[in-house]
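batch_manifest entry 22 of 60
target: Aquaporin
source organism: Occallatibacter riparius
requested by: lab member K.T.
priority: normal
notes from requester: please return tokens only, no post-processing; we will run our own comparison against the previous entry in this batch. if the run fails, retry once and flag.
--- input ---
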Amino acid sequence: MKKYIAEAVGTFILVLFGCGTAVIAGDKVGVVGIAFAFGFALIAAAYGIGPVSGCHINPAVSLGVWAAGRMSLKDMLGYWVGQFVGGFAGASVLLVLAGGVSHGLGQNGWGPGYQGEYGMGAAIVFEFTATLIFLVVILGATHKAAPAGFAGLVIGIALVAIHLLGIRITGTSVNPARSFGPALLVGGTALSQVWLFLVVPCVGALVAGWLFRSKVLEVTEATEVKGGRQIVGA
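--- output ---
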């Protein structure tokens, strides 16, 4: 249970500070500020709860880790429960801070009236590609052959880059729990479109997990150090 509670706490942090910055200070900090808020929130959570649960705080991440053969189905489902509860809790606190949903809760979306008014096709392509890349970074940075202690920082920086590209397209999800909480509370168009942010990131995560499980990207030999230089087997 400690792992699942940690995932709820971490997802709460991500949604509150990421979506909260977009809603409360977005007009002041802009796209760059919002992107860094999500990235910094992830980094903070990674070093806070990482030793307990690994800090997935994202159902797509847990799905990709499971697909790569690095966690059990039981743990993945437990992580999902914690993540969705944490995402909803974060959105609920933001609802109180923002004084209602008149300005939104940082929900994801696409089409007329939303951000750059990109179509559903662009939203699908972005969310699939961005989640696939995100999971490749995560699975690579957390591999036993990767330098220890830097995974949280690298993954947080990757999330910043993904947000910089995607905020004008979909608001950037790559995380079903981050999308579900705000959409459920806002309702309307946000709730009718949330299916895309539940399904497409998971498909991208499954592809990334398969790439590692099938050894296409997985390191297959132990890392060696020769002559002061790190050698990683291919």
